[in-house]
Design brief:
By secondary structure, the chain is mainly α. It has a domain at 65-115. 75% of the residues lie in helices and 0% in strands. It is built from 4 helices and no strands. Helix 3 (73-89) runs antiparallel to helix 4. The longest helix is centred in the N-terminal third of the chain and has 25 residues, at 8-32. The N and C termini lie far apart (60 Å). Pfam families: AzlD (PF05437). InterPro entries: Brnchd-chn_aa_trnsp_AzlD. This is Branched-chain amino acid transport.
Length: 115
């Protein structure tokens, strides 16, 4: 029987995960093609997407896991604040906004470990 195979649960997870996410992606593409660039609904979608990203970022800063859990709160908040300021000063370049906080966190971890 196919359900007794060792790979059957993995296949089920892959198919279920693909269906659960891809349906919404395709519906988003279909609906998005009909929206005007400056429409209120598109502005709302962007605002919700931005809010979700910021909520995940805040969760990682306030309730970290893994290596981040070992860093002090001031280091995480400081790296995020400086990274955001540099992101704005650099003309909103995402790569700069990602690299600067990572470098600050790394330097902070190294400095704290040397004590």
């Amino acid at each position: 029987m196919i359900t007794d195979a060792w790979w059957a649960p993995y296949l089920f997870i892959a198919i279920a995960g693909w269906i659960a996410t891809d349906i919404w992606r395709w519906l988003g593409v279909l609906a998005g093609n009909r929206l005007k660039e400056g429409s209120e609904i598109l502005n709302w979608v962007r605002a919700v997407a931005t809010a979700l990203v910021m909520a995940v970022t805040a969760k990682l800063i306030v309730f970290p896991t893994g290596v981040l859990e070992q860093t002090p709160m001031w280091l995480r908040i400081g790296a995020a604040a400086v990274g955001f300021a540099v992101f704005l000063m650099a003309g909103q370049r995402v790569l700069i906004g990602v690299i600067v906080p990572l470098v600050l966190l790394t330097l902070g971890l190294v400095a704290l470990d040397l004590r």
